[in-house]
Design a protein that fits this description.
This protein has nine helices and eleven strands. It is an alpha/beta fold. It has two domains: 139 residues, Rossmann fold (3-Layer(aba) Sandwich); 81 residues, SIR2/SIRT2 'Small Domain', CATH 3.30.1600.10. The mean pLDDT is 93.
Length: 229
């Protein structure tokens, strides 16, 4: 049984119509990163932040899984391989494509989190500043998204899977955001084979044993077909 850890980023959902996260100009969907993707931005203007993620949630719900999502779902359900599917994305396209289990290291648009007591619950499609936490009753609800300055989810589980892996595959990631950008170095240090599948070379492309570049909807199904005919 081949043990494969797959990391996906925004590039895999771009062909489903979801814009990739670009921090180079300090903007995300025409908003300053510090205004919509930090705890401080939420504290300053929770209404703006909730509206921003309401729009992202609606866009994600309207999107459809593409051929890359579907290929990975087929691989993840193949009993000849043990696949750990980790995503930096906050959409649910992997799940809707049929992936049985997805580790969302940066949280999910479809989860809600109380900024006061840290209680979690499924997010409504529209979150409002007047929404009350079902646990503590305070109007301190936010999306369950990992913002800048916060610790990604499930790191111990991801690191354990990497230590056991035979192959690490990075798909649709820029290689700019840590700690995910460091996974290839961790894999190489452990002697694990590494593969990059990306539209263009990532920042860390030179650290991979192999790299294939092109649209995810083409190169991901082609790669899956080589190990799962």
């Amino acid at each position: 049984m081949t043990r494969i850890v797959i990391l996906t980023g925004a590039g895999i959902s771009a062909e489903s119509g979801l814009r990739t996260f670009r921090a180079a100009d300090g903007l995300w969907e025409d908003h300053r990163i510090e205004d919509v993707a930090t705890p401080e931005g939420y504290d300053r203007n929770p209404g703006l932040v909730l509206q921003f993620y309401n729009e992202r949630r609606a866009a994600a719900a309207a999107a459809e899984p593409n051929a890359a999502h579907k290929a990975l779902a087929r691989l993840a359900t193949d009993r000849r391989h043990q696949v750990t599917l980790v995503t930096q994305n906050v959409d649910d396209l992997h799940e809707r494509a049929g992936a049985p289990e997805v580790i969302h290291m940066h949280g999910s648009l479809f989860g809600a989190l109380c900024a006061r007591c840290r209680h979690r619950w499924p997010a409504p499609m529209v979150m409002r500043t007047t929404d009350l936490c079902p646990d503590c009753g305070h109007a301190t609800c936010r999306p369950d998204i990992v913002w800048f300055g916060e610790m990604p989810h499930h790191m111990e589980r991801i690191e354990a899977a990497l230590r056991r892996a035979d192959l690490f595959v990075s798909i649709g990631t820029s290689g700019n955001v840590y700690p995910a950008a460091g996974f290839v170095a961790d894999a190489r240090h452990a002697g694990i084979e590494t593969l990059e599948l990306n539209l263009e070379p990532s920042v860390g492309s030179r650290f991979f044993d192999r790299a294939v570049h092109g649209p995810a909807t083409r190169i991901v199904p082609e790669w899956v077909a080589t190990i799962f005919p």
